[in-house]
Amino acid sequence: QVQLVESGGGLVQAGGSLRLSCAASGRILSTYGWFRQAPGKEREFVARIRWNGLSSLYADSVKGRFTISRDNAKNTVYLQMNSLKPEDTAVYYCAARDSDYDRVEYSYWGQGTQVTVSS
């Protein structure tokens, strides 16, 4: 019923930018987020947004560099990543949950898109 498909990953040099997209199909949920997982590391939270656009939240590691947004007309969530660092290298996943409460875990996930930042 709910499908999330990420795109926009790639290889960039440190200091560069990428814009990830998450195309959502099926019913639209309350909250969408981005997570990332580097090889050998735990999955970590990056950012999340309410579909109504009234609330956004970022991990400390990306504050001031990444921006999450959504386009209601296109049913798409974006992650604009600026000033990329090698430590940003990871597979980035789009996720969604049908709740505004941050205590509720995400129940839907995309397939991931690779972001590689070279030094």
Tell me what the structure shows.
This protein is mostly beta strands and 119 residues long. Strand 4 and strand 5 (44-50) form a beta hairpin. The strands form two sheets. Strands 2, 4, 5, 6, 9, 10 and 11 form a seven-stranded mixed beta sheet that branches. The chain is built from no helices and eleven strands.
Global geometry: globular
Unreliable residue runs: none
Helix content, binned percent: under 10%
Average pLDDT, to the nearest integer? 96
Provide the succession of SSEs: EEEEEEEEEEE
Cα Rg: 13 Å
Spatial separation of the terminal alpha carbons: 40 Å
How many β strands by DSSP? Answer: 11
Class derived from helix and strand content: mainly beta
Major pleated sheet: 7 strands, mixed
Q: Helix tally?
A: 0
- Strand percentage lies at over 45%
SSE layout:
Elements: E1 3-7, E2 10-13, E3 18-25, E4 31-37, E5 44-50, E6 56-58, E7 66-71, E8 76-81, E9 90-97, E10 108-109, E11 113-118
Parallel strand pairs: 2-11
Antiparallel strand pairs: 1-3, 3-8, 4-5, 4-9, 5-6, 7-8, 9-10, 9-11
What's this model, at a glance?
With 119 residues, the chain is mainly β. The chain has strands at residues 3-7, 10-13, 18-25, 31-37, 44-50, 56-58, 66-71, 76-81, 90-97, 108-109, 113-118.
Keywords, please?
single chain; 119 residues; mainly beta; four-stranded antiparallel β-sheet
